[in-house]
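User: Design a sequence. Structure:
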């Protein structure tokens, strides 16, 4: 499949093909839900998504790898080195790192604003020194760089049927919604790293503090007030998904099955968390494999149908002057959410 993707995308340079293949391997190995959804995109768009994922994964590993003995200062220097390589790659100065080669090529092909990458790295750097947030407003400023820009990076690759600036807020919201879900699912693991992405104001509203979370993580004991915090965080997360939802119908039709599948699978993690009794401090909640298969199959059916219509339209004879072309039909948000 890799060769087919690269050929379809017009990527012929051997070193560049190797770079994209490396990124695809990172996506397949670490981003299972994300990779599954990516497979529903047209083959020519997949390498770009692999490159974007590979870069985000590389930076995230520098910051979060629990198996590494690197100090925060050493991790900070690694991020600075990554940013220097990124700048060189974007300036066509012969980046040698495979992930940077692929990312820089993707940025040029799709005209992705470089500020999205620098904002992302700024948030990654803050993870080295910031372990908590006072409010959702403060957390939101962090998530602009760590999550919203991911949606904005993806938007040129996915394509839109509306002006891109109209779809951008929804794409940003979807990136934030995905990350809020990760925060909730991984709250125990993040505590092990010295971080808590649930705002202090949310904890205080339910009569608990960070120390109580750490106690629960350490002892395995439950506290109903912690459950209330987690339930409230899930409700906030679902509201962000609702803000993101209209953006799916604004995407190019061939991209909608991919994003719809990611939307359903990621928001389904919230259902899994609820079904587990919000026990995320003690175990990781996952969407059952059977459910993932059903959602993926539905996405595949939709993707095949859209591509068939696209091919038929491309092959249709051009209408004569007396035969007006039918207006293309854009699916409604409600239809895309089904």
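Assistant: Done.
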């Amino acid at each position: 499949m890799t060769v087919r993707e690269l050929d379809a995308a017009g990527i012929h340079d051997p070193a560049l093909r190797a770079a994209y293949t490396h990124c695809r391997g990172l996506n397949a190995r670490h981003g299972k839900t994300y990779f599954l959804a990516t497979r529903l995109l047209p083959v020519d768009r997949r390498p770009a998504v692999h490159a974007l994922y590979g870069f985000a994964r590389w930076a995230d590993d520098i910051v979060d790898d629990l198996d590494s003995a690197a100090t925060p200062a050493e991790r900070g220097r690694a991020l600075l080195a990554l940013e220097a390589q990124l700048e060189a790659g974007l300036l066509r100065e012969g980046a040698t790192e495979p992930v940077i080669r692929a990312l820089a090529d993707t940025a040029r092909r799709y005209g992705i604003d470089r500020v999205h990458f620098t904002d992302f790295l700024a948030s990654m750097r803050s993870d080295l020194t910031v372990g908590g947030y006072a409010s959702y407003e403060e957390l939101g400023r962090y998530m602009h760089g760590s999550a919203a820009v991911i949606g904005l990076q993806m938007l040129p690759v996915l394509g839109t049927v509306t002006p891109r600036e109209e779809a951008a807020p929804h794409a940003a919201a979807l990136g934030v919604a995905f990350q809020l879900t990760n925060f909730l699912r991984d709250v125990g693991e993040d505590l092990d790293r010295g971080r808590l992405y649930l705002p202090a104001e949310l904890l205080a509203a339910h009569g608990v503090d960070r120390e109580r979370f750490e106690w629960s993580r350490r002892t395995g004991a439950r506290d109903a007030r912690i459950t209330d915090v987690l339930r409230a965080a899930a409700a906030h997360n679902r509201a962000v998904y609702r803000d993101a939802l209209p953006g799916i119908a604004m995407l190019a039709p061939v991209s909608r099955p991919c994003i719809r599948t990611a939307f359903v699978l990621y928001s389904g993690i919230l259902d899994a968390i609820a079904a587990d009794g919000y026990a995320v401090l003690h175990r990781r909640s996952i969407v059952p494999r059977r459910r993932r298969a059903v959602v993926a199959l539905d996405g595949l059916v939709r993707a095949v149908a859209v591509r068939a219509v696209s091919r038929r339209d491309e092959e249709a004879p051009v209408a004569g002057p007396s035969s007006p072309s039918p207006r293309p039909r854009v699916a409604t948000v409600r239809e895309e959410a089904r």
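The radius of gyration is 21 Å. Residues 318-338 have pLDDT under 50 and may be disordered.
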